[in-house]
């Protein structure tokens, strides 16, 4: 399978990439690792006229500690995140999440910025950025914006990103007690259901992916949390649960409750 | 679009359409047909090569993205007539049946052993999760990778 024709531009700076995005608008797509976009282009589900490669732009692939936060550059690969000492030490749940993505080859190439911008409803990171209350840093023609994770995902494959905006980094607060529970789709290793749980004393934050067309904070679980796993009953309260050939809605809702229970007790 | 890269130690420079996949460039332009295309959807791992030392799926990478990189394919593993220890281990342990997945298995094994020279059986199985064997010959493939880790010492 070969993608439809496109022009390829290797951007050398963020300003250049944003200028190109502003110029080409909806016809342009940004590529870094390409492990969400290229499969979609091969299936001709996506036919950008212009592909803007940001992989070579300096300053987007670092992991640093800034003001009590761990800042992960958008071009960091899943393997880089999984093996980062800073991430393992301060946001262990993020390293765990990265380790569950795809396989060695996919983790060597795919990036956190690409995964978040693509917003696949079965992607892993969305659950974790929601539970961690991470901030998505983006840059566009109108300058820089810091988007809280809870405002970032707006629907299936859609986000709060404007046409000319690029994710530059993700800012994570330090998390002492968190875990990621995942029920794998056995061939693709995507999440049929993925649950990120962050605990802080008697309160809990729960992010869920794979269950609905958009990842969500399980606020009903968070409110009912009593230190045990019983609040898991509320995992899909008020949620329109997806049905597909991997799992129908009833089974998926059941899986969500099981995974949330594991998360709360984990 | 001009793409300049190194494959198995040799420099190449070719004019390619941007939509050319790396797997097709290796197979059709460079005639390195050891890199196989199986599922063509980033699942099966038959197209695995090393790009700047890391295992990647060449059916999901544009050749233009590989500009400036160093590529190793299965053809670059043996040293003249001498098999690479991973290839030797696959040969000795009957690590292949039909052989279609084998190049990808060997290249992924190279990545696994580079990062973890003494893997456990579980670590090998986990490391190979992105490579499918339709003959279901996983038992001997895992045995081969574990044996290769001994040979490389």
Question: What does this protein look like?
Answer:
Chain A has 266 residues and is an alpha+beta fold. Chain A folds into three domains: 47 residues, 2-Layer Sandwich (Uridine Diphospho-n-acetylenolpyruvylglucosamine Reductase, domain 2); 111 residues, Uridine Diphospho-n-acetylenolpyruvylglucosamine Reductase, domain 3; 88 residues, Enolase-like, domain 1 (2-Layer Sandwich), CATH 3.30.390. Chain A has eleven helices and 14 strands. The radius of gyration of chain A is 18 Å and the shape is globular. Chain B is an alpha+beta fold and 153 residues long. Chain B has two domains: 75 residues, Beta-grasp domain (Ubiquitin-like (UB roll)), CATH 3.10.20.30; 68 residues, [2Fe-2S]-binding domain (DNA polymerase, domain 1). Chain B is 34% helix and 15% strand. Chain B has a five-stranded mixed beta sheet, covered by helices on one side.
* Average pLDDT metric of chain B: 97
What CATH architecture label of the largest domain in chain B applies? Roll
* Helix share, percent of chain A: 25-40%
H-E order of chain A: EHEHEEEHHHHHHEEHEEEEEEEHH
